[in-house]
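Researcher: Batch entry, complex prediction.
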Amino acid sequence: MSTSTLGTPTPTPGVACAPAARRRPGTLRRMLRTTALVAFALAFLFPFYYMFIGSLQAEPDTSPAGAFPTGGLTLDNYREINTEINLLRSLLNSGIFTGGAILGTVVFGVLAGYALAQLSFRGRGALFGLVLLVQVVPFQLLLIPLYVLIVRGYGLADSYLGMILPFAINTTAVFVFRQFFLQLPADLFAAARVDGASELRILWSVALPLVRPALLTVVLLTFIGPWNEFLWPFLITKQTDMQPLAVSLANYLSNVAARAANPYGAILAGACVLAAPAVALFIAFQKHFTSTNIGSGVKG
Amino acid sequence: MKRTVPAALLVLSLGLTSACSDGGSDAEADSSAKGPITIWLSNNKEELAWGTAMVEAWNSQHADQKVTAQEIPAGKSSEEVIGAAITAGNAPCLIFNTAPAAVPQFQKQGGLVALDDFEGAKGYIDQRTGSAAEQYKSPDGKYYQMPWKANPVMIVYNKAIMQKAGVDSENPPLGTYAEFLDTSRKIKSSGAAQAAIYPSPTSQFFQSWFDFYPLFIAETGGKQLVEDGKAQLNSAEGQRVAEFWKTLYAEGLAPKEQYNGDSFGEGKAAMAIVGPWAIAVYSDTIKWGLKPVPTSAGKPAAETKTFSDAKNAAMYSSCQRRGTAWEVLKFATSQEQDGALLKATGQMPLRTDLTATYADFFTQKPAYRDFADQAGRTVEVPNVPNSITIWQTFRDAYSESVIFGKRPVADAFGDAAQKVDGLAGQR
Amino acid sequence: MSVRLTRGTHQHPGRRPVTALLGRHPVGLALIAPYAAFIVLVFAYPLGFAVWISFHDYFFAAPGAQVDRPFVGLENYRAVIGDPGVRQAFGNILVFLLINVPLTAVLALTLAVALNRSIRGRTFLRVAYYVPYVTASVAVVGVWLFLFSSDGLVNRVLGPLAPDPSWLVNETLAMPLIAVFVAWKQLGFFILLYLAALQTVPKELYESAAVDGATAWQRFRSVTVPAVRPATTLVVILATITGANLFTEPYLLTGGGGPNGASTSPVLLMYQRGIEQGAPDVAAAIGVLLVVGVVTVSMINRRLLERP
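Model: Structure tokens for the complex:
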């Protein structure tokens, strides 16, 4: 099965820098390595594949042969979701919620990460400790006090802002940015400072371009949190036309699907709908990770 | 400096704490105040359809007291949502999805309004629900919930599987424990189904309501898990029920592993413990029959009690226009609306003489008659402090001794009973 | 406090008063201010509140409700530490971390290095490793339940080698299986981190190592591993933190911490006690202990890994 699927992916044209000229005895080893990678990738992909197939089946088939159906596939499970929830509206809400969260995450994260990594100022250690603390605290501990604060203290029930607020800073992002700014040589910044550039300017025109992979990484990584989040947006909004896709789907799963003709298929279809935009986003952006020129750029 | 920043933050946040917990105290709400109110409905499709129609009917007659309906999840996260809303003070006036097991906690939080404050309320409840209403009273003798609707549980069986196993599919012997076990063994050994019965073996506190508790109620003739502040689980009856389930698990007649799907609907299990909602779900695909839950001696169906699995309606203390809320509550539980609920959802309104009151419905849909009959003989979860902690404590002991057989039942139940006594005795 | 900073400040003995007061780059305070303000606005209150709760006999009440919440000192902590269930949960999480963190770090780095080469079908491979990370847990758990159930695909392939009792109801195997599941689910995240880090490793380092005749393994050990050390610190700390906050998997995959409590995690207990059972004081005490534990472990990790 590994060979048949191997044909499907299209090799990215962007990675043409493959040194075909250096054909050494290592070719066999490289082929072995590729095979191992593909086999591993298929193992990773299998549950997802299985989920997708399950979402297309009219009846759940849990036998091993059921994983490779020869027919009887249907879009009914998806059709059912589409009639039950307003996909467009939910997607729009998800977009606003996730977009707001990412914007906050990137802006606050870059500023804080840069300061923590490359600047020395009073209280930096304490602040780093604080960042760590925020990351460590389990959400379940804060859930109800946070809800009370945002709803009663700030009066943000049934609003996008209330939904976004707890997600607008993401400590993982601060960590990621800090580590990437740490990797950049300090001389680079020292030189810019000697030239009299302001810190914001250095950050904007020297540091940021160099950590573009980190920027994309943060967007792709933090996208998932708010995108899949169920409980918080649900607590904050009771109006169905404000609920993001994850909430609509969870509602759908918790009661409608249990009565559906094929509840298992309905759950899997819901998960596919939720995952598809994230996978699409990843495919769209993934080639930007590979610009290998950055390495030499740093050296300069 | 390193130490002072977090310390300063802590002081600041403590300041916020006291500021916030003092704020927002509502003036004593008037129990006759009228005006527009908000209510929450369970978002399950059929209930939502009923609720929307009910609200429309109300609004068409009360232009100055409009009701706005919003949805909360039907599943188990509804208690979290309600708990958070109580704390934040933005709970609606009425929630038509209040689990009796959560009422003691909501009451302790100061989140519920005692319905006895309204004139004629006690009489209304007692008259509508009859003596069954008694078990929804809180320890202080007041009603903090309006008994609304039940899903009395029974044993449903798959006739085709019974036939395949060589069992009389019209009247399978399931009355006594011996008969039930015998039938289960036939199902398993004939290969007619992978499992005789497949209750969820997971550790969530509420799972016992659908395996141990109905059989315990039947065996004891209607005892609650806790009575007069004392745990009843370690009685001779409790141990008999536990040993019965233990046998099912030990012989593999009931699997120990959770199933990610509908074991009965998919034909993996020959039987299931279900409420009347099952009729709509299975009627198209499965030929099924109903039996009361088994007892060791095989009590006749007319004497077998079971778990009610009720959801009630309650008024929340953040409600300002309580006069309207009370009128809406009465409107929504009127004979007419109860009939509409029964038709829309198949769930049994908690009122006396169901079958006589809605004779037409039960003539048209005789399948529901057994459940309606059973609805007259139901027992609720005990209304005691720490209710959910008690159920979790019991579930842990049950899981250890009955499902996984790691400890003798008497030991585990003895320990659990002691803990439960302590929990039920608090405040 | 990083070692770097200490060294940096010592290099400039003759400082101006502003420097002495605010550090060498006071502008750093301005850059971090929005973040710090945010923390104060959104997290400080709930967090401080949680700590406060853990020292009181507390429950959440409606606004205006008259309730008594006496200070009880360490009573909640004593109850938590004396509870065998809580001790078991902390033990479980330790098992989890010991398996999950090394597995995650090693696999993520290996795969990132492999994926960073120009190989055929790289897009496909990257997507494959990323997909489990983006998929909602509910669905993925469903598939794993099927794969690892008693008569699931895995046991059928293993035949007579299949464990008895099966994976998810086996007290010794449940937690390790969850550790593997989480590694699988989160690996895409950590591969991305490493991939991004690898972009900043100067290519010249590899070239000079190759000129010196280093084998692929030697180049990996002497160039790649040291170059991505900051990323490794990050991966280890983040994996530890996500692992310590384990909740969804025991909640869904083993049905609430089964079998028989063998996969209960501290956060699952916090959820049960604090949110389901209405005892936030006990839950907060568990949370504070967990936070203290994780911060300690993270600090030690950072010391060990960031030291050049």
